[in-house]
Amino acid sequence: MILDKFSLEGKVAIVTGSNTGLGQGISLGLAEAGAAVAGVYRNDAGETEAMITKSGGRFFGIKADLKSIAPVNDIIDNTVDKYGRIDILVNNAGIIRREDSINFTEKDWDEVMDTNLKTVFFLCQAAARQFIKQGEGGKIINIASMLSFQGGIRVPSYTSSKSGIMGLTRLLACEWAKDKINVNAIAPGYMETNNTINLRNDPVRSKELLGRIPADRWGQPSDVAGPAVFLASSAADYVNGYTLAVDGGWLAR
Ligand code: NAD
């Protein structure tokens, strides 16, 4: 039955940035579809844990700072110690710095590129090594952005990192498809999370952006849950290297 292919029963997923926003929405979706979630968090994953366990799901928190690649191997090892295997990796954690490019600092460049691109690559690599060891393939979902497709303004390191995510997703799919590893990305549109507080609080930018979204609303964390479940499931076994926009029609405009 086709719906069985969407089930994540018996699967184990790592989700970075699981404590808030889109990472929380994705964690809840994967757990509801049956996956045990190893949620990587920086400060406190209590809310996500409570929401998942309340509805009978399994959640295990791993505290890590993804600004550097130092915690990468521990994240994989702790998940395998706890749940015995890994089937899904969602690279969701990310940061943004806003400043005119003419004044942009090296610090704001490095912090964003390290968190949003370098750590993502090394997490992909570590998860793929584990998938290959297990011999049954795996699913990687990277969180991209509208700025994987467009330029944006005042976010040079963010646009570079998210454009890099789309390219990296394609490259890894090409290298690892033979190992039954799918590497896809989700490009969220303008979503109501911490990441967009400044935009939503700016009456001019907020009105401009909302006026351009065909769905006529900001996205919610729950809007990315279904696409994430799909890409994490065997229903997406032949989808590889693709960046799926979840944007209320923004790119179609
Ligand atoms: P958010 O700020 O609520 O979430 C970001 C998450 O990343 C948080 O859980 C945070 O703890 C984690 N994180 C950041 N730096 C970290 C570090 N050094 N170590 C560990 N964890 C770290 O915002 P969000 O919108 O939910 O962002 C999630 C992802 O979605 C990001 O990659 C973001 O770039 C992307 N995105 C968001 C939007 C949007 O409109 N909100 C649009 C496109 C892409």
Automatic annotation (TrEMBL):
This is 2-dehydro-3-deoxy-D-gluconate 5-dehydrogenase. Belongs to the short-chain dehydrogenases/reductases (SDR) family. The gene is kduD. InterPro entries: 2-deoxy-D-gluc_3_DH, NAD(P)-bd_dom_sf, Sc_DH/Rdtase_CS, SDR_fam. Keywords: NAD, Oxidoreductase. It comes from Candidatus Thalassospirochaeta sargassi. It catalyses: 2-dehydro-3-deoxy-D-gluconate + NAD(+) = 3-deoxy-D-glycero-2,5-hexodiulosonate + NADH + H(+). It holds the Pfam family adh_short_C2. Its EC number is 1.1.1.127. NCBIfam families: kduD. GO terms for molecular function: 2-dehydro-3-deoxy-D-gluconate 5-dehydrogenase activity; 2-deoxy-D-gluconate 3-dehydrogenase activity; NAD binding. It comes from the Bacteria.
